[in-house]
Amino acid sequence: MKFAITSKGNPASNALTQKVRTYLQDFEMIYDESNPDIVISIGGDGTLLYAFHRYSSRLDKTAFVGVHTGHLGFYADWVPSEIEKLVIAIAKTPYQVVEYPLLEVVIRYRNGGKEMRYLALNESTVKGLVGTLVMDVEIRGDHFERFRGDGLCVSTPSGSTAYNKALGGAIIHPSLPSIQLAEMASINNRVFRTVGSPLILPEHHTLVLKPVNSFDFHVTLDHLTVMHRDVKSIQFKVAKEKVRFARFRPFPFWKRVHDSFISDGR
Ligand code: NAP
Ligand code: MN
């Protein structure tokens, strides 16, 4: 079996990376950065987001596992002291795999430029370059509202505990294939009106944002931000692809939520 390791790059993560690499090679596993069967992310949730995007073209052939060298994470839920146990579990395949839903983002351009398709593990956000973002929001082809405000955030269930949570969105269990739209500071008065609540859309429902009077935007995909000019529409839905996590012990999602946000006293 082939493996790769993505490190956060700080000394603690780099030291652990060396250790895991040596251990796994002792078990006759092959280090292969291009075509790994399993990717071990060592650092934090941000490190796993980076690893996800690096290997997003071969999600069906790759399983991810996250080790945290800082605080407990949602994707990085193994501690360095468990590393020997983890290495043995990885080496004696087959292991269980759990799949989480992803967000598909398709950006189309007014100038006839080629449409772009992206995947996000946490979320995609849209903000204007200057001033208020103004977007018509369509759900399944029907006009829903005209949004004016700081921006919009569309998240996955596993990303619902990240930016989405800070925006007052709900935490969604990753067994529900869905996407969530959350507002960033919408303008609401007698003239301008948005629904105000986060919306949760099921599989196959498309959400489309259409510019009204300004066509350039900052679009984020997890930790990445890209400026898009001359945008005609931005479409979101649950992706057909899924992310696969190697599962070696039970660590229920609600327990991760508890341990991250309430207390890790157990
Ligand atoms: P970062 O600024 O280090 O990330 C912000 C925090 O979000 C970090 O503590 C990170 O954990 C944590 N995080 C990432 N994914 C999470 C998840 N699924 N559930 C709960 N917490 C999560 O930047 P980054 O590490 O590159 O992460 C990018 C993410 O930051 C974006 O996808 C977005 O969700 C989040 N973000 C949040 C806000 C906000 O809450 N206001 C604003 C912008 C971006 P680690 O420290 O373990 O990496
Ligand atoms: Mn981070």
Automatic annotation (TrEMBL):
Active site: D45
E.C. number: 2.7.1.23
Cofactor(s) in the UniProt record: a divalent metal cation
Cellular component GO terms, alphabetical: cytoplasm
Residue numbers binding NAD(+): D45, G46, N122, E123, R148, D150, A185
Gene3D superfamilies: Probable inorganic polyphosphate/atp-NAD kinase, domain 1, Probable inorganic polyphosphate/atp-NAD kinase, domain 2
Enzyme superclass (EC): transferase
Reactions catalysed, as given in the entry: NAD(+) + ATP = ADP + NADP(+) + H(+)
Biological process according to GO: NAD+ metabolic process; NADP+ biosynthetic process
Keywords: ATP-binding, Cytoplasm, Kinase, NAD, NADP, Nucleotide-binding, Transferase
Pfam families: NAD_kinase (PF01513), NAD_kinase_C (PF20143)
Gene Ontology molecular function, alphabetical: ATP binding; metal ion binding; NAD binding; NAD+ kinase activity
Presence of the UniProt keyword Nucleotide-binding in the record: yes
Predominant subcellular localization, coarse grouping: cytoplasm
Localization, UniProt: Cytoplasm
UniProt-listed InterPro entries: ATP-NAD_kinase_N (IPR017438), ATP-NAD_kinase_PpnK-typ_C (IPR017437), NAD/diacylglycerol_kinase_sf (IPR016064), NADK (IPR002504)
HAMAP family associated with the record: NAD_kinase
Role, per record: Involved in the regulation of the intracellular balance of NAD and NADP, and is a key enzyme in the biosynthesis of NADP. Catalyzes specifically the phosphorylation on 2'-hydroxyl of the adenosine moiety of NAD to yield NADP.
UniProt cross-references to PANTHER family, sorted A to Z: NAD KINASE
Recorded family membership: Belongs to the NAD kinase family.
Protein name, per record: NAD kinase
Originating organism: Lederbergia galactosidilytica
